[in-house]
Structures are given as C-alpha cells and as structure tokens.
Amino acid sequence: MDAAGWDARYADAPMVWSAGPNALFASVVADWTPGRALDVASGEGRTAIWLASRGWQVRAVDFSAVGVDKGRERAAAQGLSVDWVVDDVTAAELGSGFDLVALLYLQLEHAQQAAVVSRCVQALAPGGRLVVVAHDLDNLEQGVGGPQDPSVLPTVELLRYWAREAHVERAEQVHRQTEAGTAIDVLMVARR
Ligand SMILES: C[S@@+](CC[C@H](N)C(=O)[O-])C[C@H]1O[C@@H](n2cnc3c(N)ncnc32)[C@H](O)[C@@H]1O
Fold first, then answer.
1. pTM above 0.70?
2. Comparing C-alpha atoms, which of 162, 42, 41 is closest to residue 111?
3. How far is the CA of 108 from the centre of ligand 1 (A)?
4. Atom 26 (ligand 1): residue with closest C-alpha?
C-alpha cells in the first residue's frame, strides 16, 4: 500500500493499532537502558510514544503524514517529545548512532524489506540493537489476521539473512493470542 492508502486508512478510524505498545516488543525492551531510538515505519506512534515515556530519545519515521500527525498529537497530549519525520524508509536518511532501532510490522515485498533491515542495521551505534516484529509467513496458513500476501511476509531464516551484517541474538516464531485466534509473529533481535 502506498502512502496515500495508509493516509486513508489512518484517517478512517480514531486508532487503527493499539494505543499501547506491542506486548512482545515491550517485553523484549522493557529492561534496556534508555538511549537513542529510531522507530522505522512508526504508524500512529505507539512504539515511539511508549519508548519516549520510558526515557528514550526517539525519532519516528513513517511515510503516512496522517499517521505521523496522530502520533505527534498523542505525544504532545502526554507531554512527550519525539522527533517525528514523514518520509519513505526505503530511501530517507534515517540517521546513525542509535542504541535501538524498532521495526514493527512493516509490510513490504521481500527485496525492499531486506534493504530496509540492512538500513536499520547501518543506523545502529556499535553495540546497538535492532528489534523486528512481523507477521510470519506461516501465519498465512496456520494463523489468523495479518496480510494475506506471502510476498510481504518474512520468516526466521529470511530475517536472519537480511540482518547478516549484525549478530543475531534471537530469531524465533512467537504465538500471539487475539480475539480471532492465535496469530504467528516472528521476532528478531540483532546487535551491531
Ligand atoms: C502495519 S503498519 C505498522 C505501524 C507501526 N510499526 C506499528 O506497529 O504500530 C505499517 C506502517 O508502515 C508504513 N510504511 C509502509 N511502507 C513505508 C515506507 N516505504 N516508508 C515509510 N513508511 C512506510 C505505513 O505507513 C504504516 O504506518
């Protein structure tokens, strides 16, 4: 979906995603010492806002101006500061020296997704970590919800390969309970 499509989706509902963070992401990052964080494809800002509330200095990038505006407004209402950027994460200058890069549920075709994961690794400071959460390819046949197009769904093996310039600390499927049933996500944590 292009930026206009995401703008329309975000304009159509008060919140498309949860206000709070993805539970898996939060459980992984909760104990980490706050530093500089980059939220890639930040949507309505749930990850960026949660990180900022925990003392992280956050930049959030998404090509949907409507999504970014929703994040900006929610952060301001909570008195939180986030550097909001409207841009295409496949081409934008993302910055460098981040202690944490978060990449949650970015739905791009594999070649583009591989390039974005590599760009995320390059944005890390030495010792910094990339955390990826996505719908796993197996979710198509064995899970519920999520995109139904296999060309945008990664696997543990693909993520490991895409992040090969970093040291992969975790790469695994994780089951997520939803009202409709069990969804299958993939989690990767990679350290530069
Ligand atoms: C499924 S949503 C996930 C949003 C957010 N990461 C979250 O978990 O709440 C996917 C997001 O990717 C963004 N996106 C897709 N392609 C993009 C691109 N090339 N550049 C920037 N953002 C993109 C969309 O605008 C959308 O906000």
1. yes
2. 162
3. 9
4. 43
Cβ(90) to ligand 1 under 6 A? yes
How far apart are alpha carbons 168 and 164 in whole angstroms?
8
pLDDT in tens, 141-179: 999 999 999 999 999 999 999 999 999 999 999 999 999
Distance (angstroms) between ligand 1 centre and the Cα of 6 equals 8
For the chain, helix, strand, coil in percent to 5 are: 35, 30, 35
Strand 57-62 versus strand 36-40 pairing type: parallel
pLDDT at 180: 96
Q: Quick one: pLDDT band at residue 70, thresholds 50, 70, 90? A: very high
Query: Could you tell me the residue range of the domain that residue 36 belongs to?
Result: 3-191
Q: What is the 134 CA–ligand 1 centroid distance (Å)?
A: 11
Give tens-digit pLDDT for 11-23. Answer: 999 999 989 999 9
CATH code, 73 = 3.40.50.150
Tokens of residue 78, six digits = 């909570």
